[in-house]
């Protein structure tokens, strides 16, 4: 059974750094792109970026390029999303998302349970 | 970057048919995927590649895509279908990124 298990909720202050994680199991972690989707309170889904753990090829949405870093450690089947300096506007639920690729299109076939990040002074 | 436009809300009586649209420039040339999200839960894929259903998704859910509009159709709507629905495509232009529509809140009257 494919599972994506994310790290727990975080409460941080503006300016602090943060790294959240997503551990994949039940499939070959290095064979699928895995990424992150943001959902701000009461808002819609926003695609942030993906990484291919097999070779660490990474793609970002222009909206998030330079704002976050996506990485992966294939030895422990875990993907990460990190910030070097959080802002209040980073307050959101972040979903880990396994991407399936076929016919020139990616879709999300499995989702993590979400990690709530709250940034407040 | 590529933009997907969805109506903010759609309302339908139980047993009737709901149609949720997703507009985009020549979206018919792209593959469209649909997700259902209930309050407090992660999204779930309900339609992929325009009209395919994952295992476990009722046959009442169907999809189509042509021209500038893709449509998610839910037949014989049930109270349990009340949720937010999002369309998604892959923008393989210079950006190479996923794109979600703004989402549609389906209300079952």
Please provide a written account of the structure.
With 121 residues, chain A is mainly beta. Chain A is 0% helix and 56% strand. Chain A has no helices and 11 strands. The mean pLDDT of chain A is 96. By secondary structure, chain B is mainly beta. Helices cover 0% and strands 45% of the residues of chain B. Chain B contains no helices and 9 strands. In chain B, the strands form 2 sheets. In chain B, strands 1, 3, 4, 7, 8 and 9 form a 6-stranded mixed beta sheet that branches. A 3-stranded antiparallel beta sheet of chain B has the order 2-6-5, with no helix packed on it. In chain B, a hairpin with a 5-residue loop joins strand 7 and strand 8 (97-100). Chain B starts with 8 loop residues before the first strand and ends with a strand. Classes of the chains: A mainly beta (121), B mainly beta (109). The A-B interface holds A 35, 37, 44-47, 49-50, 59-62, 95, 99, 102-109, 111-114 and B 1, 30-31, 33, 35, 37, 42-45, 48-49, 54, 84, 86, 88-90, 92, 95-103.
In one word, what is the shape of chain B?
A: globular
Mind telling me the C-alpha Rg of chain A? 14 Å
Total number of helices of chain A:
0
Query: How much of the sequence of chain A is in beta strands?
Result: over 45%
Q: Structural class of the secondary elements of chain A?
A: mainly beta
Quaternary state reads heterodimer
Number of helices of chain B: 0
What is the percent of helical residues of chain B?
under 10%
Largest sheet of chain B: 6 strands, mixed
Order of helices and strands of chain B: EEEEEEEEE
Note the gap between the termini of chain A: 40 Å
- Helicity of chain A, as a percent range: under 10%
Largest sheet of chain A: 7 strands, mixed
């Amino acid at each position: 059974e494919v599972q994506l298990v994310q790290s727990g909720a975080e409460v941080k202050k503006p300016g602090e750094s943060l790294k959240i994680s997503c551990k994949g199991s039940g499939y070959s972690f290095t064979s699928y792109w895995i990424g992150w989707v943001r959902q701000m309170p009461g808002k819609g889904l926003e695609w942030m970026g993906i990484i291919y753990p097999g070779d660490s090829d990474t793609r970002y949405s222009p909206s998030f390029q330079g704002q976050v870093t996506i990485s992966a450690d294939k030895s422990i089947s875990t993907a990460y999303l990190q910030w070097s300096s959080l802002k209040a506007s980073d307050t959101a639920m972040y979903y880990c998302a396994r991407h399936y690729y076929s016919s020139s299109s990616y879709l999300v076939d499995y989702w993590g349970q979400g990690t709530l990040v709250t940034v407040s002074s | 970057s590529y933009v997907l436009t969805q109506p903010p809300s759609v309302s339908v009586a139980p047993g009737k048919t709901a149609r949720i649209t997703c507009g985009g420039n020549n979206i018919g040339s792209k593959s469209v995927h649909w997700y259902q999200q209930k309050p407090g839960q992660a999204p779930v894929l309900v339609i992929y590649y325009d009209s395919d259903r994952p295992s476990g998704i009722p046959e009442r859910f169907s999809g189509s895509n042509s021209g500038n509009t893709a449509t998610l159709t839910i037949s014989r709507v049930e109270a349990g279908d009340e949720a937010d629905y999002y369309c998604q495509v892959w923008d393989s232009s210079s950006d190479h990124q996923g794109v979600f529509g703004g989402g549609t809140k389906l209300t079952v009257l």
